[in-house]
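The material for today's practical consists of a large collection of protein records. Backbone structure tokens are a discrete shorthand for how the chain folds in space. An example says more than a description, so a record of this kind follows:
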Amino acid sequence: MLRPGFTGSPLDRADTLRNDPDAFAAALADWRARLLRLDGIDPVLDDQGRLSWGSLAEAPEASELLLLGLIDGRPHFAALDYGMPEGAARSPGIFRMLDLLPPEDASTYAGARSLIDWHLRHRFCAKCGSGDTTIHRAGWGRKCGNCDTEHFPRVDPVVIMLAEHEGKVLVGRQYRYPPGRYSALAGFVEPGESIEEAVARELYEEAGLKVRDVRYVVSQPWPFPSSLMMACVAQADDPTLTIDTTELEDAFWVDRAGVEASMAGEPGAPFLPPPPYAIAHTLFRWWLEETA
């Protein structure tokens, strides 16, 4: 199995430090501690196209430090500045930078970005509605000053899937995609739904397909702002499409040769594939290996 994007970070998440104020204080005082350099919420890259790290002294005034974890025993932090843009606001250059980042660096950055964004969105208590929340557990939680409720970072589950029919797979494009780009279909898992049920529902809602035999393939974090993408394949007996044009601009069936040509970037290929850091890219690669 190919490694999905945004996975493989060298960070030891150091959970024991999160519940030990003295150990966290020692990490803050460690002269070896490193701070992730950010431009707003985007990464700053060094001359080699890697994440750039500085000393804790570089943290903006009035920011709070979040412990990302340890690399070779050295504490690594990110700074939370409440003036930052939320992670859903994607800068024009972020995806160009992700094209440069090694997968392990992209994984570290993804965790930092999602954690920062969660803090920016959860400054007030969702239970009592009146209390300010403050950071605790070394940045991996917030606590209400009014009702003492603890809040923890969450991710949104998303299914992304290829429907198969007689040696072909379904690809679709959203209106916001670059010209020519197609991908696997995707959608959020709803409350009370299994992964398999979400796959079947989304394919029916977006493309009018009824599917069976849903199989899980692999998962990937997606930090825009904070999702867990769960890749699957499913079988369709009837290839007839009824496209929901509020969700998709277009969709069509592609045979193995077409997918292979697209992934290889060949002239005249039927579609432009998703970038390597996207799990849809991994899913297409997996399907080509499975059907070889």
Observations:
- The CA atoms of residues 264 and 273 lie 9 Å apart.
